[in-house]
Structure to design on (208 residues):
């Protein structure tokens, strides 16, 4: 087996298929709830791509569908996907939980799938099925490219539309300093999590 390619057995592909279906179900339920509020399909798609939650779950859907289909997906890419979706879960629990009150049944299920289920099952997949000893500290910078690109996009879009994807990004409501501090804390937490992930990967490799 090469250093950049992971082979996944039948059990791993089955679990990957289930994870992909969970992400798909969450995205579809969220879209249906949005359409149920009177949005057209194009409007719904435009709303969906506003959120890091949705984009990260789309990433989960694509990556794990590929694994389920027997494609070669590198451990580095699976680890980066796991880190991104864990960020979704952590930020939701720390900063956004109160916003999920009084949701409709479909929205509540979508909320649980997208913010709590996939952020839990994806890192467990990495832990159980992905070959270890393939990650490097420089990977943390590669993984950070996704949330950094999203941040730039979210701030430009929020400024243009006057509506930010997440309340803690709203400069008008919170001020530049508070938004900067929150973003900096999230960024540091993400980088430290990436470093910890590489350390765990190396430790597990020696154990095996």
């Amino acid at each position: 087996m090469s250093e950049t390619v992971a082979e996944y057995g039948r059990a791993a592909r089955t679990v990957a298929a289930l994870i992909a279906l969970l992400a798909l179900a969450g995205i579809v339920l969220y879209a249906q709830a949005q359409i149920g509020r009177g949005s057209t399909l194009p409007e719904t798609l435009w709303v969906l791509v506003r959120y890091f939650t949705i984009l990260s779950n789309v990433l989960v859907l694509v990556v794990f569908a590929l694994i389920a289909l027997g494609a070669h997906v590198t451990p580095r890419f699976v680890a980066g996907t796991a880190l991104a979706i864990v960020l979704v879960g952590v930020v939701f629990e720390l900063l956004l939980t109160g916003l999920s009150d009084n949701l409709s049944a479909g929205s509540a299920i979508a909320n649980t799938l997208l913010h709590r289920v996939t952020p839990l099952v994806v890192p467990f997949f990495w832990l159980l099925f992905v070959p270890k000893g393939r990650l490097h500290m420089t990977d943390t910078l590669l993984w950070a490219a996704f949330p950094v690109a999203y941040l730039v996009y979210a701030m430009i879009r929020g400024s243009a539309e006057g509506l930010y994807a997440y309340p803690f990004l709203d400069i008008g409501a919170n001020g530049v300093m508070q938004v900067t501090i929150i973003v900096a804390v999230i960024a540091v937490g993400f980088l430290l999590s990436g470093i910890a992930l590489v350390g765990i990967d190396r430790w597990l490799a020696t154990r095996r």
